[in-house]
């Protein structure tokens, strides 16, 4: 019986701007997205019997059709009239409801994995279009690397890879829904808008200081305003080091960018004693998949 095991990488947003609201309620965004090494593992096993079986080792992740990875498999099975069944096992390492695209990357992994397992021959662009039908972050999770995202986040332009950078992530002990943060978005709450062109230039010139200077996410102002414990965690992170700290996506995960492995290890150790929440040591992931 055919079987496949693939990593599904998380993302962070190096910049995130909201340009406006569309009639369908979604927001027009402009952002630079970056894959990171932190990943879930997706194990796909073909079954003789039709249907989708899904399991995950995390108690908060749905183990039925509520799982985005389930919906990704269902979409391909319907579109391609597949007669076989599939068992999906997700080993969760990415914090849930964290702003790291955990569910989206699992769905992306299933789309890529089933395309390979069943030899469907779907092009990457076509696979990204399937992904966009399920969620705004999924096309980027299929593409990987470093990319500018526009529209609702699904119009992607790959840019030159960011040099590998060390990261320390802190997921404060609360879960935040993306929908809630977008619904609370108000331009009056935004303190600083990102400069996409400057960030792109810094990435392309491998100017690490420029990258650090241009880390801006307008949703951070919204989440910090409504969730003081996230603002408090950010303060602790900033006071414990000289590293820039930014929230990823709609939060609440915060990340610090650090030059050396040793400094990052030390910083993570210090944070473990001082913050309420999960501390994760990882790094950016430069190559496109
Ligand atoms: C915050 C980010 O993670 C940054 O990468 C994304 O913009 C969110 O992507 P996502 O979680 O895949 O989003 P979806 O699952 O498609 O949408 C969840 C909810 O977020 C809101 N949403 C999402 C994307 C977007 N451009 N505008 C929105 O207003 C919508 O209310 C939507 O119902
Ligand atoms: N495979 C999955 N992994 C995690 N959560 C899932 C999955 N499928 C569905 N969900 C549901 O989606 C909700 C959001 O979880 P997820 O980890 O994807 O959020 P997120 O990282 O904030 O997403 P994003 O950064 O794309 O906005 C969870 O509360 C969970 O109920």
Fill in the keyword field for this structure:
single chain, 289 residues, alpha+beta, Ribosomal Protein S5, domain 2, Alpha-Beta Plaits, 2 domains, seven-stranded mixed beta sheet, 11 strands, 34% helix, 29% strand, globular, binds 4-diphosphocytidyl-2-C-methyl-D-erythritol, binds adenosine-5'-triphosphate
Quick summary:
By secondary structure, this protein is an alpha+beta fold.
Structure description:
With 289 residues, this protein is of the alpha+beta class. 34% of the residues lie in helices and 29% in strands. It folds into two domains: 156 residues, 2-Layer Sandwich (Ribosomal Protein S5, domain 2); 118 residues, GHMP kinase, C-terminal domain (Alpha-Beta Plaits), CATH 3.30.70.890. It is globular, with a radius of gyration of 19 Å. Bound molecules: 4-diphosphocytidyl-2-C-methyl-D-erythritol (CDM) and adenosine-5'-triphosphate (ATP). The site of 4-diphosphocytidyl-2-C-methyl-D-erythritol has 18 residues, from strand 1, strand 2 and helix 5. Its EC number is 2.7.1.148. Catalyzes the phosphorylation of the position 2 hydroxy group of 4-diphosphocytidyl-2C-methyl-D-erythritol. GO terms for molecular function: 4-(cytidine 5'-diphospho)-2-C-methyl-D-erythritol kinase activity; ATP binding.
The radius of gyration over CA amounts to 19 Å
- The rounded distance between the terminal residues' Cα atoms is 26 Å
The molecules bound to the chains, other than polymers, are: 4-diphosphocytidyl-2-C-methyl-D-erythritol, adenosine-5'-triphosphate
Structural class based on helices, strands and sheet pairing: alpha+beta
Helical segment count? 10
Task: Report the CATH topology name of the largest domain.
Answer: Ribosomal Protein S5, domain 2
Residues in helix, %:
25-40%
Q: Residue-averaged pLDDT, rounded?
A: 96
Uncertain spans, ≥5 residues at pLDDT below 50? none
Strand proportion:
25-35%
SSE string = EEEHEHHHEEEHHHEHHEEHE
The major beta sheet can be summarized as: 7 strands, mixed
Dominant shape: globular
CATH architecture of the largest domain: 2-Layer Sandwich
Number of strands: 11
What's the number of domains? 2
CATH class of the largest domain: Alpha Beta
Domain GHMP kinase N-terminal: 67-145
InterPro entries: GHMP_kinase_C_dom, GHMP_kinase_C_sf, GHMP_kinase_N_dom, IspE, Ribosomal_Su5_D2-typ_SF, Ribsml_uS5_D2-typ_fold_subgr
Family: Belongs to the GHMP kinase family. IspE subfamily.
Function: Catalyzes the phosphorylation of the position 2 hydroxy group of 4-diphosphocytidyl-2C-methyl-D-erythritol.
């Amino acid at each position: 019986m055919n079987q496949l095991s693939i990593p599904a990488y998380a993302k962070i947003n190096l910049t995130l701007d909201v340009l406006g609201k569309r009639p369908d309620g979604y927001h027009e965004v402009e952002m630079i997205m970056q894959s990171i090494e932190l990943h879930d593992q997706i194990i796909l096993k073909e079954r003789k019997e039709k249907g989708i079986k899904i399991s995950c080792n995390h108690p908060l992740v749905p183990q039925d059709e509520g799982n985005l990875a389930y919906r990704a498999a269902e979409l391909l099975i319907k579109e391609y009239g597949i007669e076989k069944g599939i068992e999906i096992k997700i080993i969760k390492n990415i914090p849930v409801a964290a702003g790291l695209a955990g569910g989206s990357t699992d769905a992306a992994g299933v789309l890529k994995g089933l395309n390979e397992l069943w030899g469907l021959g779907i092009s990457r662009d076509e696979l990204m279009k399937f992904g966009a039908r399920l969620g705004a972050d999924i096309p980027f999770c299929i593409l990987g690397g470093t990319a500018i995202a526009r529209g609702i986040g699904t119009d992607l332009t790959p840019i030159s890879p960011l040099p590998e950078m060390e990261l320390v992530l802190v997921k404060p002990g609360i879960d935040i829904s993306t929908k809630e943060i977008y619904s609370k978005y108000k331009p009056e709450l935004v303190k600083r808008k990102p400069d996409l062109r400057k960030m792109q230039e810094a990435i392309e010139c491998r100017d690490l200081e420029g990258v650090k200077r241009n880390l801006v996410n307008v949703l951070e102002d919204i989440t910090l305003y409504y969730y003081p414990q996230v603002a408090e965690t950010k303060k602790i992170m900033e006071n414990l080091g000289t590293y820039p700290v930014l929230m990823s996506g709609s939060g609440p995960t915060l990340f610090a960018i650090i030059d050396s492995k040793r400094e990052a290890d030390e910083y993570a150790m210090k944070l473990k004693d001082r913050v309420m929440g999960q501390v994760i040591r990882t790094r950016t992931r430069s190559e496109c998949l």
